[in-house]
Amino acid sequence: MKLTRLLAGAMLASSCLCVPALAQTELTMWYHGAGNEVESKILKQIISDFNASQSDWTVAMESFPQASYNDSIAAAALAGKLPDILDVDGPNMPNWAWAGYLQPLPIDESEFADFLPGTKGMWDGKLYSIGLWDAAVALFARQSTLDGLGLRTPTLDKPWSRDEFMAALDAAKASGKYEYALDLGMNDQTEWYPYAFSPFLQSFGGDIVDRSTYQTAEGALNGEAAQAFGKWWQSLFTEGYAPGTSEDAADQQTGFIDGKFAFQWNGNWRAVATMAAVDDVVFLPAPDFGAGNKIGAGSWQFGVSAKSTHPDGAAEFIKFATQDRYLAAFSDGIGLIPSTPSAAQMTKNYKAGGPLAVFFDLSKAQALVRPVTPGYVVQSKVFTKTLADIANGADVADTLDAAVDEIDADITNNGGYGHR
User: Fold this and answer.
1) One domain, residues 173 and 284
2) Could you report the per-residue pLDDT of 129-179, keeping only the tens digit for each?
3) CB-CB contact of 130 with 301 (8 Å)
4) Model confidence over 65-119: pLDDT tens digits?
5) Cβ–Cβ under 8 Å, residues 261 and 254
6) Interval 40-53: pLDDT, tens
7) Which comes out higher in pLDDT, residue 135 or 19?
8) Does 250 share its domain with 316?
9) CB under 8 Å, gap of 24 or more: what pairs does 223-226 form?
10) What is residue 35's predicted lDDT score, i.e. its pLDDT?
11) Looking at the 3D structure of the chain, how many domains does it have?
12) How confident is the model at residue 252 (pLDDT cuts 50, 70, 90)?
């Protein structure tokens, strides 16, 4: 009897060894940051932590160079081979949702109630993507420059008016201490133009497109406010306040630090390096040109592809990745704004009293996302060319009218892009 029990036990043990453990289901993820070592390292750590935290899912990431990422997504969508999880530049998200690349995020929006507005990818009343950081632009200056030129230091509650801003540029120009009063980074004729410069247009009272319907740019991009903006914009270059489109790219990196410019319009991603080199740098809010002071918002975000057969698993990963500890890790690693106030308090630079806390406040108070429409991918390119042409001396009214015609033709050709 004892031998029988031993044999039975051995057979049971043997049969158990033949049953494999349940395997985790693989989720594919595509990412735009190939070559960005710090950012990639943090994301790989998040993936490793997620894979080890549960037994249902495992994420496998493939990275692409940012320059070719959007084309890779479009090609994969045509071939029906999109990954489960992908990241998307915030202003491009409505186009991807409209084109069928993304599905609404299968996570209750209340999970992200504390996130900065610019980190939420909304389209047609639904949340499609969520960002682990945001970015903000400010006017870089030295406190010694403000004091030396006898200028009031603007605050978020009391920014410079248009007249005060131009008086500051005039004072810097008249001092003879600088090659230019202002650097705008005009060499970067990519998404920088609509991100950094359309808020100036919006502060004048215009916009890239009429946001009430998204069916036309008429009046928004060529109306009275836009005309005033265009003339002011052109004067920055014709009157020698700022270098134009032929500016050396290196100047945006080191020109302010080297003392070539009194002021620089730049993002928080350049703030840490600038603080290390300029001990009295201050980050000032955007001027108010009459319709309120505004800056851009919306950076890279995570979403679930429309073709994913495991949206629940993809959503679990995104929820995991948006924990405060990871938002803080990205902020400390790459210098961008953490998405939540609680994550900001965990960072070196954005916690209360931190050297970059002002950027969190700017993003919360001034930020305006770029036009939330599938047509933005075309409107962005039209706007960039329009501002470059005006900076180079093109007639303001004719150039703005031509931009409106091009944008409206694209909207018509695409059936209004699904706006209701």
Assistant:
1) yes
2) 999 999 999 999 999 999 999 999 999 999 999 999 999 999 999 999 999
3) yes
4) 988 999 999 999 999 999 999 999 999 999 999 999 999 999 999 999 999 999 9
5) no
6) 999 999 999 999 99
7) 135
8) no
9) 225/201, 225/291, 226/201, 226/400
10) 85
11) 2
12) confident
- Rounded Cα distance, 48 and 45, in Å: 5
Residues 98 and 114: beta-carbon distance below 8 Å: no
Helix or strand run (H / E) with residue 313? helix 311-321
Tokens at 11, concatenated: 């057979």
Q: Which long-range CB contacts under 8 A does 395-404 form with residues at least 24 apart? A: 396/227, 396/230, 396/231, 396/234, 397/222, 397/227, 397/230, 399/230, 400/221, 400/222, 400/226, 400/227, 400/230, 401/222, 403/217, 403/221, 403/222, 404/216, 404/217, 404/218, 404/221, 404/222
Distance of CA 315 to the CA centre of its chain: 21
30 and 179, same domain (yes or no)? no
Dist CA 278 CA 179 (whole Å): 18
Helices (H), 23-117: 37-53, 66-78, 93-98
Residue with tokens 């080191």: 254
DSSP 309: S
Give 378 or 251, the one with higher predicted confidence. 378
Q: Where are the beta strands (DSSP E) in 52-132?
A: 57-63, 85-89, 102-103, 120-123, 126-130
User: Are the beta carbons of 290 and 162 closer than 8 angstroms?
Assistant: yes
Q: Which of 352, 369, 386 is the last residue in one of the domains? A: 369
Q: What is the DSSP letter of 211?
A: T
CATH number of the domain where residue 98 is located: 3.40.190.10
CA–CA separation, 329 and 182 (whole Å):
33
- Let me know if residue 5 belongs to a domain: no
**Same-domain status, 352 and 407:** no
Domain match, 250 and 283 both: yes
| Collapsed DSSP state (helix, strand, coil) of residue 265 | strand
**Which of 310, 318, 302, 301 has its CA nearest to residue 84?**
310
Is 166 contained in some domain? yes
What is the 3-class SS of 373-410, one letter each residue? CCCHHHHHHHHHHHHHHHHCCCCHHHHHHHHHHHHHHH
DSSP 20: P
Helix pair 37-53, 324-334: axis angle to 10 deg: 160
Helix ranges, 109-191 (H): 143-148, 162-175
- Token readout for 331 is 């902020």
